[in-house]
Amino acid sequence: MDALKTIKERRSARAFQPVPIPKETVKEILELTINAPSGNNLQPWEFIVVMDEEKDSLNRRLLKAYKEKQISCSSGAVKPLPKAIKKRGVQTLESMKPYVDRIGSSVDSFINEGSCNFYGAPVAVIICLDDCFSARQMVDVGTAVGYLVLAAQASGLATCPIGLITEYADEIKDLLNIPENKKVVIGVALGYPDRENPMSQFKSSRADLSELVRWI
Ligand SMILES: Cc1cc2nc3c(=O)[nH]c(=O)nc-3n(C[C@H](O)[C@H](O)[C@H](O)COP(=O)(O)O)c2cc1C
Predict the structure, then answer these.
(1) What is the pLDDT of residues 1-27, one digit of tens each?
(2) For residues 196 and 107, what is the distance between their CA atoms, to the nearest angstrom?
(3) pLDDT value at position 1?
(4) What confidence tens digit (pLDDT) does each residue in 34-53 have?
(5) Ligand 1 neighbourhood includes 120 CB (under 6 angstroms)
(6) Atom 25 (ligand 1): residue with closest C-alpha?
(7) Is 204 in contact with 95 (CB distance < 8 Å)?
(8) Residue 27, SS3?
(9) Which residue blocks in 34-163 are alpha helix, DSSP H?
(10) Where do the domains of the chain lie, and which CATH numbers do they carry?
(11) How far apart are CA 19 and CA 122, in angstroms?
(12) What is the 8-class DSSP label of residue 73?
């Protein structure tokens, strides 16, 4: 698939077909993902691919943790967000509402419970980083996520990055035997998109380039 078309057409999927992905396909996507650049070529990312019964156990564990702790999706910001940025988040959730209404849910429970379930995707990729690294290597992981979502899109699959799961990192580490010195940075839901589901019609908007760029 043409790279520009892939970039334009990718969107986060929040409805997946309950169809398993062959291990070979997941491997091909990860082979593409690791072409991502990283500082000093350290390739600090560590991927844990969770599928089949283990994925079901992960969903159950995360949903239980969400019900107990009730920590919802958030920006994770450490200071109040600037108004213009906050507005983008609010607008995104508002524009999602008509689609969520059609599946008979509320945005809040759809997003939070859906995230804990990787929106029903058959595969969850958990990306970890050794705690020896500073925030700089988070950029490497973010870049890898960018490659992963585009590689999946180009392969006819769909993804949704799931940051919420980091709130439940202890539960994930316990279930998946992730050593104490590894940070759970993000998860990515991976599967075949369910194009019949109304959520698949939703596409988030973008701020105008003029809001985001300063030319000098
Ligand atoms: C770091 C990161 C964390 C995210 N966490 C979540 C999440 O927990 N749940 C969710 O439904 N979407 C999550 N998303 C998806 C974003 O909501 C989505 O990328 C954004 O609304 C833009 O929409 P698009 O990906 O369809 O272009 C996350 C995306 C990123 C990059």
Answers:
(1) 599 999 999 999 999 999 999 999 999
(2) 19
(3) 59
(4) 999 999 999 999 999 999 99
(5) no
(6) 12
(7) yes
(8) helix
(9) 52-69, 83-102, 107-116, 136-154
(10) 3-69+83-202 (3.40.109.10)
(11) 7
(12) P
